[in-house]
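pasting for ref
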Amino acid sequence: MLSRVAQRALIGWEAHGPRIITASFRTQKKKIKMTIVQCYAPTNDSDEETKDQFYRRLQSILDKCREEDVIILMGYFNAKIGTDNNGYKEVMGTQSVGDMNENGERLADTCALNNITIGVRMFTHKRIDKTKWVSPDHLTENQIDHQICIGKRLRRSLENGVKRGADVHLTTTC
């Protein structure tokens, strides 16, 4: 599933239970690696212990990541972030819709603790492109699919105008 270049850059991968997998890659800068954390979070109506266990495991993985490395947290978080970004401006920007649910708060708290930004919320989108679900009566819209969250290093690259590659271009050199 990986290109030849990505295969050569792959340092390793690890499954962390049924909901989280990580993969680490070498980048062009030899001392920096890129870690991708792929998640499938429990639904908002899952029991508290299941959600707590998932976020504890996720936090233990993020604790092992070095601050200077590129971190991409992605997957399906079953979370609604909402428009009220008080206390979360650095984490979620202003491009959300709806109200935050419990899973959204858990995701936002985890991102804030780890200096990670919910990437799609930082960039301007048309309203029609923001919502992933609309009720049959067209009165309720939800934005629940938060797929990509980016660490501080990658966010800095994007803020500095480097849109393509964003300093994570994979290489075969060690």
